[in-house]
Amino acid sequence: MELRWDSVTVDVTDPAGNPLRILKGISGVACPGEVVALLGPSGAGKTTLLAALAGRTRISGGAVTVDGIAKHKGEGAATAAERRKMPKQSVAFVTQEDTLLTQLTVFETLWYASAVRLPAHYSQEERLARVHDVIKRLGLAKVAHTQVGTVMSRGLSGGERKRLNVAQELLTDPPVLLADEPTSGLDHVAALSLVDVLADIAAAGRTVVATVHQPSSRLFRRFTTCCVLAEGRLVYFGPASAIATYMESPPVSRPCPAHYNIADHTLEVVQAIDPTDLGAAWEAAPKTSGGTYDVAAHVRALGADVDEGSVAALDAAKTGAQDSGDKQASRAEAALSAGAAGAEGDADAAETAEPGPADSASARGSPSAPAVVVGVVDPRDEPALGVPVKPLPRTSTASSASSDDDVVVGVSAAVRKAEAALANTRPASAAPPACMRSWGSDPRWPTSWCQQFFALTARALRTSKGSTLTWLMLAQHMCITLVASIIWWQLRQGAGAIQDRLGILFFFVIYTGFTSLFGALTTFPAERSVLRRERQSGAYRLSAYYFAKCAADIPVSCVFPTLIACIVYWTVGLRADAGAFFGYIGTILLVSQVAQSLGVLVSAAVLDFQRSITVSSVLMLGFMLTSGFYSTEIPAVLSWIKYIGFPTYGYSLMVFNEFPADALYQCGSANDGFSGYPCPVSGAQVHDAILPPFATSGPAVGVLAGMYVFYRALGYVALRSNA
């Protein structure tokens, strides 16, 4: 599918509130079979342009279109919703950061992705075959069952993580693939290998656009087309192999020294010359109808007599493409390539060498120098052979005191494609991917809500297995259980032990609340980048993800509270009654779920772990101090807090469960009374002494259940506004 961008402009606002234009009317086109490199110094706007092409940055002017499908649905115009949705399904975006779930293996990462991103009609066997095919294509078979890992735990290497990032996007076989600096942080061999993968994808009829930063000469030759930016301006767009000709020719007039990396030279030129001048030079340069650099027209405009054999071969390539397709075009290209030895020789071996004066003179040419060559460069191979042409005449420019001598003109396969566009003879791409073959019948999402929910729930359970159910947390809970059991071991019966019983009940309400709330704070910050990438790719509904996380948290958050409750209830000697025991377990679980729901709300609203800790600490301490255990005389300015705090209702249920209203507690001595009540003390008197008037068992359960629903619903709203 053809990706075209016309006069794209992006405006933002700086921290001071001033408008700032990042992209200034950038135009270009990327077609099936091409690997387009976005080149430019830092801050040139490469990533912004790529994000605009992917629909992830709002453009202020211009347009981005994805073939005809982006504009039409059958014979009628597509709706606004369809236009918004199409880029997500047809354009895959590989971010620069490794947005991966570190607890999963390579296979698990792709398997769960296939469950939500491949169409619903795919069987399990077809999904499995697709996952294995992508693993094989990306060279990840040897690490298929290796955990992604982190910097602290051994896992995939940097290159393997980059490949896995690409693999996730290749699952749906997208017609357009955008990659933001895929080679950053990789060694030379790993970078070449990854770009070879991108070239293979393009060779299969897909369109590939990637930003690159300081590519080596060998890596740069893998790209068919180059788009050079400088401070948000377009300064070159055309065949990668022709950029040396453009830089050497007037009005730029900056020849690349012999045996020097043309990509490095281009960046140096871009930084040395004012971007406004470079932009004006590009505007004046001859272009094809597709907006790419027309090297042949430029050479002729400068007065060079291109050898008729080269022109005839180029025409034959166009004619062959019109008549018999790619096969005849390839033969014409081969005929054009036949001739003298390649112009660059062993450039790879000397790409880092400093050019000497002799090299520079040789590169510029001289009156006695032999004829230069027009060569066809395959982006996947070394420089090809060429045929001689007459040297260019000397020309003077205002930006250079020296004359412009002979120019080495590079005509590549990308030039042939650009020229052939005039006659609609671009190489035919492979059949469109499944997600685009029947656009009108495709649902809004690849899979149903239920399928997304179950797949994401399974993934959430798998990731939580390694982060929550750990031996460390088990040790923490067992230590607290042991200490509490020793302190409150087998409490006495009677009025003298009422205060101690209230202490253990309140402690475990607060402990359960703290552990459940703080355990939920990592729910979304840890997966923020993954969620954003998958949402922007249109992988699933946010509601399916959110409720899957909620469902996965339920069994995890119930294990430890139940285990602690079963031990502590009998070691401290609480009321020996089956109903009271299960009432205690139920209260602990209800408090745990409400506290976790509050933690999910804070996590979704803040999306920053450090800030969420601060917010949660203030909330829990406020609830604890106003719940009625430490003081029943709360100032009016703070008394309202107890009505919205779950510890108040959880503690009330614990008291009702342990001290039935009709129970009597005898005194062992004259000092065994409770809160001024004479012996025997009834359960109703205990309730009146420590609980607020509004606290009763039935409404307390209803309030906690309502808090659970309210916190979960508000958490979804918060996540939707921040995701």
Automatic annotation (TrEMBL):
InterPro entries: AAA+_ATPase, ABC2_TM, ABC_transporter-like_ATP-bd, ABC_transporter-like_CS, ABCG_transporters, P-loop_NTPase. GO terms for molecular function: ABC-type transporter activity; ATP binding; ATP hydrolysis activity. It is a multi-pass membrane protein. The keyword Transport applies. It is found in: Membrane. The chain crosses the membrane at residues 469-491, 503-524, 545-570, 582-607, 619-641, 700-719. Keywords: ATP-binding, Membrane, Nucleotide-binding, Transmembrane, Transmembrane helix, Transport. The keyword Mitochondrion does not apply. Residues 317-369, 382-401 are annotated as: Disordered. Residues 331-344, 352-369 have a biased composition (Low complexity). This is ABC transporter domain-containing protein. The lineage of its organism: Eukaryota, Sar, Stramenopiles, Bigyra, Opalozoa.
